[in-house]
């Protein structure tokens, strides 16, 4: 009953905030919901002395919700599948090399650059963070968030090839990022682990290749089943079973659930729609997953806005937040620019393209979920606060300005 109560409160708030945004703010829906949730959080903190029970009740509600488990173990699978089902496979093939490089090598470069710069800069501000925790922050903040990217790119009007690069990178970099984060987290928490190149490489291959293989099999199986019946209601139900059952299977055999969902979504969205579905089935399927995408995005960004209540004295971390924002942007630039210098891509990357790739690398709920998954300790609050500042800046400032930047630096886009 408590789960139903919590979910009901979130749905009511998400719908109310979405209405307020469309009625008054008129921002992109996800950003608008998050901004209103943040403003509500600030009002709750300010009025906390007058109505302490209200603030305490709301904070308790948030603390009782396992954000990491809800996002990484549930919402992310639906959102990734909903995004991937609309990705054109031909566009993906044309941009396969940059997507592969940016979702693997760039994540690794960014992790170590963020870690090193943070370790060097924090003492200047009077903060102390062991190098291993600086690397941990680098690992959780380096992957671009597919949910934030896909939802905001819809309104950015960037060229199709560039949109595919940014969206493709964000969909595929989770597997690499989660393995790097898990390895560094175990080191930071003193767990014993085989750190040989062979073992870590095997973990990466198992996560990525296993996720792709399972997702492709699920997508093909679902597409063939849909072709035999072509009933839009049962077809939607089959795709739901792919997402929910597919994640359980991926979790049971220890491979990447997110990459499984991406692969399954791409196969059903391309092979399945082309060979197995009538026009009416395609129409219902698209509308169903667009609705799921919008509802879960509203809830997710509502969560992000209210996470403010879980960080005591958030303003005390403002200098840390500013430094982390600058470090993450610089690291993002280096992780994109350096590969374009040494790898012979089919097309040369212009300065404008690099600017869009850097500025369009948004961080979101995945980074917050990873930060919250760290065990309680002396550095967790600092890492969560730093992550929150970067994510909020990324979504609000970068997200609202990426379209204007694209129009300025890509006049023919």
Structure characterization notes:
- This protein has 413 residues and is mostly helical.
- It contains 18 helices and no strands.
- It has a single domain (68-409), classed as Na+/H+ antiporter like fold.
- It has helices at 2-25, 29-46, 52-64, 67-84, 89-94, 96-125, 131-141, 146-153, 160-172, 174-188, 197-229, 232-252, 257-275, 279-306, 318-342, 351-359, 365-372, 380-409.
- α8 packs parallel to α18 (380-409).
- The longest helix is centred in the middle third of the chain and has 33 residues, at 197-229.
- The chain is globular.
- It starts with a helix and ends with a helix.
- The model has no long low-confidence stretch (mean pLDDT 88).
Per-chain topology:
Elements: H1 2-25, H2 29-46, H3 52-64, H4 67-84, H5 89-94, H6 96-125, H7 131-141, H8 146-153, H9 160-172, H10 174-188, H11 197-229, H12 232-252, H13 257-275, H14 279-306, H15 318-342, H16 351-359, H17 365-372, H18 380-409
Helix pairs in contact: 1-2, 1-14, 2-14, 4-12, 4-13, 4-14, 4-17, 6-7, 6-9, 6-10, 6-15, 7-10, 8-9, 8-18, 10-11, 11-12, 11-13, 12-13, 12-14, 15-16, 15-18, 16-18, 17-18
Spans of at least 5 consecutive residues with low confidence: none
Into how many domains do the coordinates divide? 1
Query: What string, H for helix and E for strand, traces the elements in order?
Result: HHHHHHHHHHHHHHHHHH
The largest sheet is: none
**How many helices?**
18
Q: CA-to-CA gap between the ends?
A: 51 Å
């Amino acid at each position: 009953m408590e789960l139903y109560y919590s979910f009901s409160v979130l749905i009511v708030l998400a719908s109310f905030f979405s209405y307020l945004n469309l009625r008054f703010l008129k921002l992109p829906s996800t950003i608008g919901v998050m901004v209103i949730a943040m403003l509500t959080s600030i009002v709750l903190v300010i009025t906390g002395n007058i109505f302490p029970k209200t603030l305490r009740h709301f904070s308790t509600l948030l603390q009782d919700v396992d954000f990491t488990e809800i996002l990484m173990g549930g919402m992310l699978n639906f959102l990734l599948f909903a995004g991937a089902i609309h990705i054109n496979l031909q566009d993906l093939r044309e941009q396969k090399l940059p997507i592969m490089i940016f979702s693997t090598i760039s994540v690794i470069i960014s992790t170590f650059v963020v870690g090193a710069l943070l370790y060097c800069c924090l003492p200047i501000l009077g903060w102390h963070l062991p190098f291993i925790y600086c690397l941990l922050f680098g690992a959780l903040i380096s992957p671009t968030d597919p949910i934030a990217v896909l939802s905001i790119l819809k309104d950015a009007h960037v060229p199709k090839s560039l949109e595919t690069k940014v969206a493709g990178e964000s969909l595929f970099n989770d597997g690499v990022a989660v393995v790097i984060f898990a390895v560094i987290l175990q080191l930071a928490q003193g767990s014993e682990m085989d750190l040989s190149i062979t073992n870590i490489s095997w973990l990466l291959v198992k996560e990525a290749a296993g996720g792709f293989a399972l997702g492709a099999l699920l997508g093909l199986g679902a597409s063939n089943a849909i072709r035999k019946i072509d009933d839009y209601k049962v077809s939607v139900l089959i795709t739901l079973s792919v997402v929910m059952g597919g994640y359980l299977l991926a979790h049971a055999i220890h491979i990447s659930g997110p990459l499984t969902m991406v692969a399954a979504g791409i196969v059903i969205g391309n092979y399945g729609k082309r060979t197995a579905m009538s026009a009416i089935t395609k129409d219902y399927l698209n509308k169903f997953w667009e609705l799921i995408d919008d509802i879960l995005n509203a809830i997710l960004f509502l969560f992000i806005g209210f996470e403010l209540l879980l960080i005591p004295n958030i303003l005390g971390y403002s200098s840390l937040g500013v430094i982390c924002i600058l470090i993450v942007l610089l690291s993002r630039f280096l992780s994109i620019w350096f590969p374009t210098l040494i790898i012979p891509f089919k097309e040369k990357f212009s300065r404008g393209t690099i600017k869009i790739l850097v500025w369009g690398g948004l961080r979101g709920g995945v980074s917050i979920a990873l930060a919250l998954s760290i065990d309680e300790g002396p550095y967790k609050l600092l890492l969560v606060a730093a992550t929150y500042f970067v994510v909020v800046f990324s979504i609000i400032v970068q997200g609202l300005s990426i379209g204007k930047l694209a129009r300025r630096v890509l006049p023919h886009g």
